[in-house]
Amino acid sequence: MEDYCTADYMFSQVGDGEFSQEYASTYHPKPAIGFRPDKRFHKLPPKLKKLYDEVIRAHNDKLHLLCSAGLRGLIEGICADKNISGGNLEKKIDGMTAVLPAHIVENLHGFRFIGNDAVHELEAPTEFELTLALDVIEDVVNFLYALDYKVSLLEKLKGKETRGKTKGGAGTDKS
């Protein structure tokens, strides 16, 4: 694919009879610096997968307000999927102790504040804060939706390996 740039411009009045011309450039394809690939979570429900994909796209497009609101939405969606109720997000996060270690749950309240600042105050978090928040949400999603699946695959593979050794008469398992 060839690189190219599009430029949009507009005129704005800056004084009595004075105008300025402003340009905005868009580069295609988008630069890969700061690009975050989305991860695959095999057991993530479709609605949460769609939201996760949109959060990653918002992050990659530098739409920090939308990304942070989406992170908050992911926490809400996970709570709904895991049947964790509460009158507000704070209580829902506290209820996540049913599925996550307590020390992790205590720190998830940062998502509430990131989302509140984005949605209510229109204040976007920094790139570093969003990157760290994405790392955390991906770890939570991995723990809740992918880890058991991956472990079960390992067990199945180990079972095949053991059966293969037994059938062929090769030595014993030395693990």
Write a structural description.
The chain has 175 residues and is of the alpha+beta class. The chain has a domain at 45-155. It is 57% helix and 13% strand. The chain contains six helices and two strands, in the order ββαααααα. Strands 1-2 form a two-stranded antiparallel ribbon. Strand 1 and strand 2 form a beta hairpin. The longest helix is centred in the C-terminal third of the chain and has 42 residues, at 127-168. The termini are far apart. The relative contact order is 0.11.
- What is the CA-CA span between the terminal residues? 49 Å
Q: Which radius of gyration do the C-alpha atoms yield?
A: 23 Å
Give the overall average pLDDT. Answer: 82
Main sheet?
2 strands, antiparallel
What is the structure about, briefly put?
This protein has helices at 46-60, 64-81, 89-95, 102-107, 109-120, 127-168, and strands at 4-15, 18-28. With 175 residues, it is α+β, with helices and mostly antiparallel strands.
Describe the SSE topology.
Elements: E1 4-15, E2 18-28, H1 46-60, H2 64-81, H3 89-95, H4 102-107, H5 109-120, H6 127-168
Antiparallel strand pairs: 1-2
Helix pairs in contact: 1-2, 2-5, 2-6
